[in-house]
Amino acid sequence: MRMLINVPETVVADALRGFAAAHPELTVDVENRVVVRRDAPVAGKVALVSGGGSGHEPLHAGFVGPGMLSAACPGEVFTSPVPDQMVRAAAAVDSGAGVLFVVKNYTGDVLNFDMAAELAEDEGVQVARVLVDDDVAVSDSLYTAGRRGTGATLFVEKIAGAAAEEGAPLERVESIARRVNAASRSFGVALSACSTPAKGGPTFDLPPGELELGVGIHGEPGRERRPMMTSREIADVAVDVVLDDLRPSGPVLLLVNGMGGTPLLELYGFGAEVHRVLGERGVPVARTLVGSYVTSLDMAGASVTLCRADEELLRLWDAPVRTPALRWGW
Amino acid sequence: MRMLINVPETVVADALRGFAAAHPELTVDVENRVVVRRDAPVAGKVALVSGGGSGHEPLHAGFVGPGMLSAACPGEVFTSPVPDQMVRAAAAVDSGAGVLFVVKNYTGDVLNFDMAAELAEDEGVQVARVLVDDDVAVSDSLYTAGRRGTGATLFVEKIAGAAAEEGAPLERVESIARRVNAASRSFGVALSACSTPAKGGPTFDLPPGELELGVGIHGEPGRERRPMMTSREIADVAVDVVLDDLRPSGPVLLLVNGMGGTPLLELYGFGAEVHRVLGERGVPVARTLVGSYVTSLDMAGASVTLCRADEELLRLWDAPVRTPALRWGW
């Protein structure tokens, strides 16, 4: 137990109070657990709403702002938000141009966002949905049918968010979001388990000196447990698994993502190895982002996400964004 | 051992290679360990150079760019950079308007920056120096005579960097930097030890269920070891210790800083408690920054830094900055 918390029951509410205090530029409804861009609804603009279990910060609330999400709904730790949060968020941000739900592929999230879409549509909001399922490690897992949604969520939210900011209609924002997801693959590695406040200790057993290849962002089992490997060896495995599935023929966007407990010093070193492997495989890297963006509480480890990037996606990636966690060009 | 590294000997070099690959907007001399703003030297502009042991990322290399540092020199993990790095950095960024060295108060850093200042001056570079010593926990410690330099380094580098960007002369940039340091105090808490690559395990012994009040950013002992406390209780102690020493009569800048191993979810929750205490003490918070900026590898814990903020300091704080770790208004 090395948690900086009051009691497990108030962790999410406490964090939202702190988020509200730190980010007066956003509207934070602590009671109903909805974070909204302050100038929403923006006339004529398609809105993006996402959400999911807490414990993956800065995802998703840290990605709310001009050029990215219009609203985010945080659930309890590693637990889907409820449909009521999503309906409330949709109502707060819809300008009449419609709402895109960005949903990571976990059973609870999928069911709740589907229900929310029906409810919002009953209230006259036009809703489209994109499912993020980029994790190549396993095809079914503890929490999912099909692939899990992980690092590509950041690419989908940033790029589709930029398209919406430019005034693209709902159908087009949705198709760009789908295109980004289809063009993205991830693979993650855990060097330690994560500890949830409710459990007060590690959620799974990973003995010191072993690592989990292909781990999910809740510590779900991956493909294989192995004795500790070097950064170089891990990069070889992770990049090759992703490339085998993705088969890019041109430049890629690269996210070197920390799981939460891995220091930035190590993450940049791992990024160097990822760049090395991509170079050896002849894959040019158009843009690189290194940091802990899609996390699993205090889990040590990292994931690699690649996205096949054409000119349009790169232009939208480079477009201005102003959120707590991603900010440039503004 | 849950480190994402190759071998301890190459950790800093590996990270610099990854930093270079991720940040083509900066000039990274991996061999000589100097990170420089690409457009340096900027004609007529005072340059800011900082540096220190690695393991505190994003400090300092992540703060290089327009509006903040001109260059950074990373040393080995928790070890001062050498004077040669600092002289090289100064030569690379000096436009003739002079260079300000921002030095955290650790014996090795102070000696090496002093020597570098002499060497740079011999080469015709005008050098001023500001010492950062904001940590109220102890007056002398394992690595320092006097107070340790911790979170206020970020305030000094951002605010003095903004003054330099506006064209202030060296004497004025130096006096603003000194003013920010004199107006800032910090207090840190560790919930776990950090592990250095060289040691391969924890650098000090902190039994589960205990915490170290007043810890330094290398895991130096603090004031007191206590059984685990809640976020609320920790905020009460940390804020009051800082306020007792700082005695602000107006608004403050607030940094709620993660030590590296504490998830953002917990850090925001702690931020809520810090805001609560400040509210109870009648101290208005003008700006809040929450994140892991001045870290100690994978140490769990947090620190609170407050800076008495007048209108000029707030204006300089809000001024545009474009670095890997801090970016706004540009």
From TrEMBL, chains A, B:
Which Pfam families does the entry mention?
A: Dak1 (PF02733)
Give an example GO biological process.
Answer: glycerol catabolic process
- Top EC class, one word: transferase
Q: What is this protein called?
A: phosphoenolpyruvate--glycerone phosphotransferase
Query: Which PROSITE patterns does the protein's record reference?
Result: DHAK
Any single GO molecular-function term of the entry would be:
glycerone kinase activity
Give, as in the UniProt entry, the pathway in which the protein acts: Polyol metabolism; glycerol degradation
Q: Which key words are in the record?
A: Glycerol metabolism, Kinase, Transferase
The UniProt record lists the EC number as 2.7.1.121
- Cellular component terms (Gene Ontology): cytosol
